[in-house]
Amino acid sequence: MTNREGSLEAPTRHPLDWKSEAFYDQAALDKEMARVFDICHGCRRCVNLCTAFPTLFDLVDNSSTMEVDGIARADYAKVVDQCYLCDMCYMSKCPYVPPHQWNVDFPHLMLRAKAVKFRRQGAPLRDRLLSSTDAMGRLAAIPVVAQTVNAVNKVGAARSVMQGVLGVHKDRQLPDYASSKFRPNASPARSTEVRDGKNTPGKVAIYATCYVNYNEPGIGHDLLAILEHNAIPWVLVEKEACCGMPKLELGDLETVAKLKDANIPPLAKLAKAGYAILTPIPSCTLMYKQELPLMFPGDGDVKAVQEAMFDPFEYLVLRNRDGLLKTDFKEKLGNVSYHIPCHSRVQNVGQKTRELLQLIPGTTVNTVERCAGHDGTWGVKAEYYDNSMKIGRPVFEKMAAGEPDYISSDCPIAGRHIRQGMGEESPNARKHHPIELVRKAYGI
Ligand code: SF4
Ligand code: SF4
Side by side, which strands form the sheet with 430-431? Predict the structure, then answer.
């Protein structure tokens, strides 16, 4: 048998076998980690992607045998802890992904290890709080409470206490909570005529996401204004809960399943009624496009939602291809440094945000396609903050190049992280989400 490198066939992703007891068998997991770690040690392509691989290679190089068999099994967790499931090693580097016979799916192996750990030990309070985005948002977005939380988050002494008690790094700039949530304040759609295109349904359902609902409702209002400008009728998804991505990253798969049970029925109803479902946060979009279909491969409703789910820029660019998008932009944007987040890249839809921004006259887009190193909650945690800033450094430098007027990322959390990491560089560059930039360019 030849061990051919790479594959001539398109990569495939196996469903996640998370309901079987074998999935949680520690000895079987350790054996699989030893097998995959050994392949990675011989390959080392991913050394600069994140800190999981350097951690692994340091463990190998400092072991008595200088091979994977010299690493203590207990130290495998050090590699797992450094992985924030961005998926880039699978999508962009690895020549041994299925259908290759070596069957390497590093992110899903890390996810399995996180799930086994969660089943055995649960998670500390800090991780349970940070991953409960909906509950935290509901509480913190109450007016007065929002103002108090926002003020406290900016006080150095309070942040030092928070680091000591909760393990949230004192220097991490946290998003504000809005005192006025998106969903209850979304203006009703005026357009009613449905014009289906070849590539796009003519009516849209908005899955707002916890982040837009509680932290940056302006992104949601801007998206609605863009739809209105293009005479696209829209509805809000009747009821929504967190997509489950923060719980997935924690390995809490049972809670992911509960959130799926809350979200999928109303979403599937809309999908079957011919709506395009737009989700303005890439990680949440990815949850419906990739992670839930892999966790529930036989579920027809999950599949219907997967097929109806669009990144907003994917939808708008396809709408333009259908000849149904207005390009009457009135305001030029100048130099835009645009970061494409990992969870947008792994959706495999190309650089749709860049494509749309480039339609705006007087706009030059400097696209930065590299992991910024924050992830949803990983870069907030005291023990990972320094690594998160280290991983992001090349992105901060590239985003500062060319005297940008705006810096922007589809992931608003990455956008904030990048602005923080840029420090004093490009002090005049304003941080705006791409959806906000498009509204600004339309002059609406
Ligand atoms: S999924 Fe991302 S963070 Fe995890 S090992 Fe791969 S590249 Fe690193
Ligand atoms: S994940 Fe694949 S490409 Fe990356 S180090 Fe391991 S074997 Fe090599």
Answer: 363-368, 334-339, 406-409, 430-431
